[in-house]
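Below is how a single chain appears once it has passed through the pipeline. First comes the sequence as given, then the structure the pipeline wrote out for it. We keep one example in the README because the format questions we get most often are answered faster by looking than by reading.
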Amino acid sequence: MKTLKTIKNLSLLLVVILVSFSCSNDDDNNNQMVEPPQELNIVETAQTSDELTSLVAAVIEADLVDVLSGPGPFTVLAPTNDAFDAFLSAGGWATVADVPDAALEQVLLNHVISGSIMSSDLVTAGSGYASTSATGAGDNPMSIYYDTSSGVRFNNVSSVIAGGADINASNGIVHVVDAVIGLPDIVTFATANPNFSTLVTALTTLTPATDFVSVLQGEGPFTVLAPVNTAFDAITIPTDESELTNILLNHVIGSALSSTDLVGLGSGYSNTLAEVPNNGGTNLSIYFDTSAGVSFNGISDVAVADVVASNGIIHAVDGVITLPTIATFATSNPALETLVAALDYADTGSPTVPYIDTVSDATAGPFTVFAPTNDAFGDVLAELSLTGFGEGAGELNAATTDAVLLYHIVNANVQSSQLQSGTVTTLGGDITADATAFTLTDPNDRVSNIITSLVDIQGVNGVVHVIDTVLLP
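Resulting structure:
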């Protein structure tokens, strides 16, 4: 009987276990039917925070709810309520509704970076630039500078607060910051990046007579070629304030040129805000070449391109761009290599003037140089049945080269707008100009066209106009 009772008890226990297992499976199935809570998007995440109510109000006011609720991913730098209070107070506004909608939209978009960027990503990079969704100069995306040497800081005006980093949302990442990041101008970026500290000193302390800060905070647009600290280390900084001022202005172009713009052009000339000393405000030229990176005047290369501000674009460069001479432009443009070779070869004889030294001398002149292209020299050598420069048979000797070059130099700074029809006296003799057809005729009635896209290349000691035919005595 005892055995039977034991069997009954075991059977009952088995039933209980089976029932329990069945109930457990039913519970699991019921749990699988319940959907887990969905992750909030960036706007919804901000709405859950008592510290971000002003940001939410601003996003609604600027009609950016749909944008920031979109698929992204975005990295949003979210200013606290205190940050907005300071921003509104500085602007003289009571609420975000008082801020002009267009301005408010751009300020908010300046806090939005495409992609999900964790604080660890920024710390690993150390410092650098990213692009925001705001619109900067030339309709390019506005840049933002980050530096993690002491916390995580943006444009040197706003830091990620303690515990405010890496807040996950369904469409990106939120970093809570302690200040609203206003729209940066060129000065903002110059002062934010410690790699420009020597430049900032030169623009302020060393040139007190010129208010560079006001100039570079102006409407623009500008392109600023900003030498890094090591670029200044490589030169002797002029102690003469007017000279240093002109050198600094030689790094500022009066339009917004992105690296894409420059690469699209390939090579060419623009004008800087620097002026020819004692020449009535004539601006100096600058040559750019993108055949191997982006270089200027053959002496300075772009190290970091396209830092886009509200009023211009900064390209960090690795060399200070000193004031150019005629020689600067002749040697930096590959299309004028043969002219440089001719000048150099003429110096090996007994030249009328020491050509290389003269065109390199910033205090010489001023001169106007009609500069034949490489093709022009190739054509004239073929025309004269010559093989090149030299003292051998069938070569253009130094004395004749000297005589030819003199016909391309005028002892005055004559810009294209000042060219008049009639006789032009060169160092070698008279030629004839046609200011309407834009041509020069030598004593042999050979006609050379002035290439209209390559005129008024202005250096401190004269101006260059490129021509397509060598002038002969």
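Residues 2-33 form the longest helix (32 residues).

See the next section for the split statistics.
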